[in-house]
Amino acid sequence: MFLRCPSAFKIAFYFATLPAFTSAQESDIERLRMPFSPDEERPRVIIYPLIDQRCLASEKQEGTNALPPEDLSLWADFLKEFSKNSNLNISLPEATVQSIEQNKPNRRSLDAIQKLANRAYADYREVRLEEAIEGLRDAADGFYAIEHHIIAPREVARLTLTMGLAYLELGDQASAASAFREALSVDPCLRLRAGYDHPKAVELFERIRSELAHHPEEPLDFSTRSPSSSFLLRSRLLPDGHLSIVMQSTAGVSFDQASQKPGSASRLASRLATCLPFTYKRKSQQSKKHLYLDGGFADFVFTERPVEMFNNVGIVANASWLLDKHVGLDLRLGLFNSSRDREEDLRQDIQTFRLALGPSFQILFNKFRLFSVIGLELASMGKVITTDNAACKYFSQNDPIPSSICDHDVDIRRSEGSLHIGASLALGFALNIGSRLYTGLRAEAAWYSYETEENALGLPIGGQLFLGYRVF
Amino acid sequence: MSFCLLYAVACQPEREYSGLWQQKGGDSAGDGYVYELHLGRYGDSLSGMVVRYLDQGEGYSYERTSECGCFLIEAGRVHENHLRFQLHRPDLPGPTEAKSENPACSPIPTDLCQERIFVLNGDDEELTGQILCNSDDPQPLRVTFHSVFGRTRTVCIQEEE
Question: Are A343 and B1 a contacting pair at CB < 8 A?
Fold first, then answer.
C-alpha cells in the first residue's frame, strides 16, 4: 500500500504554503541548505510510540512489546530518515510520551479516571455487570481523552478486556468481541489465561486475536487528540514485519507501509515528507497589519444645549489602520445636519463637520472585533439661532408686531459658526460577514475643551451603523 | 444608538393644532362676530393671530369685506389637548380692510371685558370651548372652531394675491 496524500491535504497545503512556494524557485533539497526566513514556520509532526503487533501471532502473553528493541531496526531506520527533514518540527516518540506525561490537566484528570476505573472493577467483582460496563466504558474513554493508553497501554487494555468479560457474562457476545478487539488494539500482547479465565472467554478472545493477526490492516478505531494544526503520526509493526504508518491532520488521514527490504524505511520517510508542507507562512506575520475602511449612517445629540434635545443625522467614514494585533490608528469623518427640537426653539438647522483621530485598541473573538478609540476631535458647527418666544417663531422680523410681543433683537440669540476641539471616545464592535466585508455599531462621545465661539452646544453622544471592507 | 433612534421619535417638533381654524358663518356666540384663528404651536407654547369678522350668515362671513378687527395672540399655552391664549390689547384691534370704519367693528370695551381669553379643547377636526372676559367670567361665550384648509396670516392687512 502506498501513501496517497488526500486531495484535501494538497489543497490545504498549497494555500498554507503558497507564499513560501512562490517566493522561491529552488528545490526542497536546496532550500534545506538555506537558513529559514523569520516569517517561515516549520510544520509540527508528532510521532507516537510504535505499537508492536507482532505478538498478535503468538498465543503466549508477552510484555507490551513482542520483541526486544534491537529487533525494531525498521522503525529505527524510519525515525532516523524522517528526522533528517530539518524543515519539520518533529516530536519523537520519547518526547511525545514526555509531553503527555507532563501535561498538567492530564495529570489532574488521571486520578479521577483511575478512581472511576477502580469503582467499575469493584462493580465487576460484585457482579453488578451493567454498572461495571458503564463505568469501564467511561474510564476507557477518559483514558483515551488524556492519551493515557500511550503511557500505560496495559492498564487501559485491561479495562476494555474486563468490559468484554462483563459483556460475555451478560450473554452479549458481539459487544464482548468488540471490547476484546479494542483491548488488543491498545495492547496487542495482552492475553487471557487458559485455566484461570472462563474457557468461553478465552476461546472468543483467541478468535479475535487470530482475526487481528491475519488482518493487520484493520485501523485503530479509538479516537485520541484532535490533530489541530499538527500532523499526528501513528505507527504499528504488523505481524508480518511491515511497518504501517497512519498520518492524521485537519486535512484528512493517509496510510502507508514499509517492508523489511533494504531502503524501504527510507523511502517511506521520503514519501511522508513529500506529503507535508515545506514551511508555513507565520500567521502572526500574515495578520499583523490591516487597513479597515467603512462608512455608514450616524446620529448624535448634544447633551449640553440651550434648547430641548434634537438629533443630528449624517453620514460618516472611518479608516482604521491596525499596526499590531491589538493597536492601531483610527480616523473618523462625519457630516451632519440637525433636526429641530420639540418646541422648535432652534430656528435653523445646524450643519456640523466632525473629524476625530486617535489610537485604537481592539480584541478579536472569532468573527467579532471589539474596539475602542481614544483621541482628539475637531468639530466645525454652523450658525446657532435660538429663541423661546413663541411669537418670535410665528412672526418674521418684517411683520409689524409690537416689541412687547416679540423683539427679534432681544428675544432671539445668535451665534456664528464655530470650531470646537476636545477629546473623543468611541466604543464598538464589528462582525465579519465575508472574508473582507464587515458590519457593526460604534458608539461615540466627545468633550470639547476649546471653542472659538460660545454656542452652548457640547458633549455630543451618538452612534453609527456601518458597513466596511478590509483592504489588506 | 438605540437611545438616539428612540429619541428621534420623541424629539420631533410638536405642531398639532397649528393652522387655520374658523367658526361656522351664522354660528356667532351672541356678540355678532365670528372668529378665525391663525395658530402656530411650538411644543407647549402657542402664538398666532385672531381675526374677527362680522357674522353675515353661513357662506358669507369670511369675506375680506367682513373683516372687523385683528388681534395678536399672547400667553398661549398647550397642554395635551387643552389650549389657552388671550388677545393682545383687545381694546385696540389692528387695522383691517374696508369695514374697519364700520361702527360695528368697535374695540372691545375694557370696562365690560378686560381681557379676551380663549379656553379650548381640541381634537383632529374641532376646537370647542369658551371665550371669557376674565378668568371668572360667569357668562362665557361658547364657541366651536373647525379646521379649514388655507394659509395662516402673520399680518392684519394682507396684500392682494
Answer: no
What helix, strand, coil percent values describe chain A, rounded to 5?
35, 35, 30
Q: Domains in chain B: how many in total? A: 1
Q: Are A381 and A350 in contact (CB under 8 A)?
A: yes
In Å, how far is B43's CA from the nearest CA of chain A? 4
Q: What CATH number does the domain containing B104 carry?
A: 2.40.128.120
pLDDT of residue B69: 83
β A368-381/A418-432 pair status: antiparallel
Say if B36 falls within a structural domain.
yes
Q: A359 CA to chain B: closest CA distance, Å?
A: 22
Question: How far apart are the C-alpha atoms of B116 and A252, rounded to whole Å?
Answer: 93
Nearest CB partner across the interface for A399, out of B13, B45, B154: B154
In this model, does residue A396 exceed pLDDT 60?
Answer: yes
Partner-chain residue, chosen from B13, B73, B74, that has the shortest CB–CB distance to A344: B13
For B158, the closest chain A residue by CA position comes to: A399
- A188's CB contacts (< 8 A; 6+ apart) are A51, A52, A53, A54, A55, A56, A66, A212
**pLDDT tens for each residue of A26-53:** 566 666 666 666 667 788 888 999 888 8
For A84-97, write each residue's pLDDT tens digit: 888 888 889 999 99
Average of per-residue pLDDT across A411-419? 92
> Which H or E run includes B9?
helix B2-10
In this structure, chain A runs to a length of 472
Cell of A131: 454498572
For residue B158, is it within any domain? no
Instruction: Kindly list the distances between the CA atom of residue A412 and the CA atoms of A339, A347, B12, in Å, as whole numbers in the listed order.
Output: 19, 9, 21
Domain of B128, in residue numbers: 14-148
> Taking the CB of residue A337, how many other CB atoms lie within 10 A of it?
14
pLDDT in tens, B90-124: 777 776 654 455 666 766 666 667 788 999 999 87
Interface of B with A in 72-131 (CB under 8 A): 72-74, 76, 88
Report if residue B3 sits inside a domain: no
Average pLDDT of the segment spanning A365-393: 93
Which residues from A are below 8 Å from B88, CB to CB?
A: 402, 404-405
> Considering only residues 413 to 442 of chain A, which have any Cβ-Cβ distance to chain B shorter than 8 Å?
441
Residue B107 lies in a domain: yes
Model ipTM?
0.88
First to last CA, chain A: 45
Instruction: At B41, list the grid cell.
Output: 404651536
Burial class (CB in 10 A: 0-12, 13-18, 19+), A236: buried
Instruction: Check if the beta carbon of residue A408 is closer than 8 Å to that of residue A397.
Output: yes
Nearest CB to A405 within list B4, B40, B88 = B88
Q: What is residue B113's predicted lDDT score, i.e. its pLDDT?
A: 74
pTM assigned to the model:
0.55
CB contact set of A94 (below 8 Å; sequence gap of 6+): none
CA distances from A128 to A180, A452, B157 (A): 20, 88, 109
Cβ distance A405 to B74 less than 8 Å, yes or no, reads yes
A465: Cα separation from own chain's centroid:
28
